[in-house]
Design brief:
Blueprint (H helix, E strand, L loop, with lengths): L3 E16 L4 E13 L5 E6 L12 H16 L7 H11 L4 H19 L14 E3 L2 E3 L4 H14 L4 E5 L5 H15 L4 E5 L6 H13 L4 E3 L7 H10 L3 E4 L6 H9 L5 E4 L1 H4 L2 H14 L2 E4 L6 H11 L27 E3 L2 E3 L12 H7 L3
Helix pairs in contact: 1-3, 2-3, 4-5, 5-6, 8-10, 10-11
The protein binds [(2S)-5-oxo-2,5-dihydrofuran-2-yl]acetic acid and magnesium ion.
Family: Belongs to the mandelate racemase/muconate lactonizing enzyme family.
Protein name: Muconate/chloromuconate family cycloisomerase
Cofactor: Mn(2+)
Length: about 375
């Protein structure tokens, strides 16, 4: 009994330009993975990158090519029922490609959970929560626009804590922008920054000190990915929480960062971890090391975001919440029933699988030719 696998690329414009230190996004490309089991049950997975190859080592096109060329022949020899065995075969045959592996694992878990009639979270250890808090990222590039956007989100009941993307401008300008937003929104609204590895050691020391004094709650990946020595020095030096993001690429790096005391908080991403199982392993390494947890995103659409939510719902604690707002940044939905964002949380349904119902007509209409 063999499985069939299809990959579909969809380009969706964002609701506004999304400015990071590494790129400015105006569209997001979803790589949808559709696996059909021998009995006809369909599982979905998704991978996204940020700005093609601007952020990481995989692109939507490399994910599609590698799944079709290298994963598909392997999957055609397997049954969908044992996800662990399937992933072990894939890991033996394929190096790297964590995002592609995550998308394929997600689709296999979706099928297995549907066969068992349970949500995917039940295959990952079980839920300790049925919803996760979701922040909004302010990244328009303009202080007044960001303040207006944040106020609107609070008023709508959508988001009540925010992350600001900085690092593209001189640090003094960025800090002035961040503090102005913090002061406008007040003491009760948590503001965090993501520097996306833009700062040198001196910029880190000066910038983080100013942000700490200004009441900012969390500093995400301030320095280069491989400079974990500096991340460790900053973690020791500052009281404001330092979070590893790009430096965290799965259980091995989680272990090394924890051993090095190189972060107060881990931003766990399912794609960066190489899968949902691996994201849960990262969370458990953090937990035993006393490192707090945050549920990160690669700005996935609804499939990847709900897959992430299924994993984050099992984490022993989620002290810094999540950023699973990716679907809300897109101008088009590909689901029959939209995800439930209410009361500042993303709610997980009890339905079997990942918890999404794909609108296949919509996908046919949007897919890249
Ligand atoms: C990142 O580095 O965290 C997550 C939210 C966002 O705006 O960008 C991503 C990537
Ligand atoms: Mg980040």
């Amino acid at each position: 009994m063999s499985m069939q696998i299809e990959t579909i690329l969809i380009d969706i414009p964002t609701i506004r330009a999304h400015r990071l230190s590494v790129t400015t996004m105006r569209t997001q490309t979803l790589v949808l993975v559709k696996i059909t089991a021998a009995d006809g049950v369909v599982g979905w997975g998704e991978a996204t990158t940020i700005g093609g190859l601007s952020y990481g080592e995989e692109s939507p096109e490399s994910i599609q090519t590698n799944i079709q060329t290298y994963f598909a022949p392997l999957l055609q020899t397997m049954s969908a029922s044992n996800v662990a065995q399937a992933m072990q075969t894939i890991h033996k045959a394929i190096n790297g490609n964590r995002f592609a592996k995550c998308a394929v694992q997600t689709a296999l878990l979706d099928i297995h959970a549907k066969h068992l009639g349970v949500p995917v979270s039940e295959l990952l250890g079980g839920r300790v929560r049925d919803s996760v808090p979701v922040l909004w990222t302010l990244a328009s590039g303009d202080t007044d626009t960001d303040i207006a956007e944040a106020r609107e989100m609070v008023a709508l009941g959508r988001h009540n804590f925010f992350k600001l993307k900085i690092g593209a401008k001189p640090w003094q300008e960025d800090v002035t922008h961040v503090i102005a937003i913090k002061q406008a929104l007040g003491a009760d609204v948590s503001i965090r920054v993501d520097v996306n590895r833009a700062w040198s050691e001196m910029e880190c020391i000066q910038g983080i000190r100013a942000l700490q004094d200004g009441g900012i709650d969390l500093i995400e990946q301030p320095c280069a990915i491989n400079n974990t020595d500096l991340l460790a020095r900053l973690t020791q030096r500052f009281d404001v929480a330092i979070m590893a993001d790009e430096a965290l690429t799965g259980p091995d790096s989680a272990y090394r960062l924890a051993k090095q005391h190189a972060a107060h908080v881990f931003a766990v991403k399912v794609a960066q971890s190489g899968g949902l199982y691996e994201a849960c392993q990262v969370a458990h390494i953090a937990h035993v090391a006393g490192i707090d947890l945050y549920g990160g995103t690669m700005l996935e659409g609804p499939v990847g975001s709900m897959a992430s939510a299924q994993a984050f719902a099992t984490f022993p604690s989620l002290a810094y919440g999540t950023e699973l707002f990716g679907p809300l940044l897109l101008t088009e939905d590909i689901l029959k029933t939209p995800l439930q964002y209410q009361n500042y949380q993303l709610h997980l349904p009890q339905t079997a699988g990942i918890g999404v119902e794909i609108d296949e007509d919509k996908i046919e209409h949007l897919r890249r030719a």
